[in-house]
Amino acid sequence: MSAIEEIASQAPAVDAVPKRAMTLSSGTTFVVVLLLLVVPLFVKNFIIFQMTMLLIYGLAVLALNILTGGSGQFSLGNSAFYAVGAYTSAILMEQYNVNYALTLPVAGVICFGFGFLFGQPALRLSGVYLALATFALATAMPQILKLGFFEHWTGGVQGLVVTKPDAPFGLPMSQDMWLYYFTLAITIAIYIFSVNLLRSRSGRAFMAIRDNEIAASAMGIDVATYKTLAFGVSAGITGVAGGLGAIAVQFVAPDSYTIVLAISLFLGMVVGGVGWLPGSFVGAAFIIFVPNIAEGISKGLSGAVFGVLLFLVIFLVPHGARQVAMVAQQLLGKLRKN
Predict the structure, then answer these.
(1) Cα 4 to Cα 56, 126, 127, 213, 220, distances in angstroms
(2) Which runs of consecutive H residues, i.e. helices, occur in 14-44?
(3) Phi then psi for 161, rounded to 5 degrees?
(4) What is the pLDDT of residues 286-306, one digit of tens each?
(5) Which class for 114: exposed (0-12), middle (13-18), buried (19 or more C-beta within 10 A)?
(6) Which of 37, 155, 208, 244 is the most buried (most CB within 10 A)?
(7) Tell me: the pLDDT tens digits for 73-132?
(8) What pLDDT is stored for residue 140 in this prediction?
(9) Spans of all domains in the chain
(10) Are the CB atoms for 242 and 292 separated by under 8 Å?
């Protein structure tokens, strides 16, 4: 028996992923969706805007979760895909008068192709080396967007101003509220797609590669195809998030998509729990609201306060929001028995 066959014989079969491993229970999901639908009716537009950005960053973190938590590939370059999606929507809207809703699938397809092609040379890399390659991509993207060759479309260092859409059909709601519900609908659709993807045969192949690449190859999984597919899907979802972000913020500029954004997305994934899709939105809330809390505690030392808060979170709950959810589930189970 060869070494590969021996590893394959020892490796456990890849079973279907349990529902609770990736998503919330049906009751909890209903409550969360109900809150997301009702809360905007009773808050100010600024809060609605923050909730919209939470959903957008949540999508970007979810995309990274599919890549890292699903297939085990570390990436620090998703800010580049976010930038490509944002600029695609902005350019189509402002220079070609394309409807904002139609720009999102275009952004997703372009970023899918970009991610799939980037995944080809990345096949030779893994671990920290792959992280460094994607880090280089994230570092280079803002400079590429500033090149004079692209300035006619991208606006160079000055960027582009994006027009926020009005509610269609004369609906009596503000621009911020309409964009929130529009973003929420897209978020729910992508979330359902992501859960079904990880439960599918492709998702099980992703996780087999994550757990043991050699054993996965011995079991007949086309490792190269599935690794590049994971990159493509992650980049495509990130591109849609980038397009939504451009519409919500009403502005795109190269310096908005630096390595800081990439690290923030990675941080959101870790805080939310690697591999747990609902945690993506918890992580997004962390990277949006905790810096504001830190600044409220001390404006001069906001960075230090944020670092301390982050350290406490990682120290107390190293597996992120997923760990908190599991503990809460166990406590509820004990209470029901009693």
Answers:
(1) 42, 19, 21, 11, 12
(2) 19-22, 26-38
(3) -95, 135
(4) 999 988 888 888 877 888 888
(5) buried
(6) 244
(7) 888 889 999 999 999 999 999 989 999 999 999 999 999 999 998 888 777 777 788 888
(8) 92
(9) 43-259
(10) no
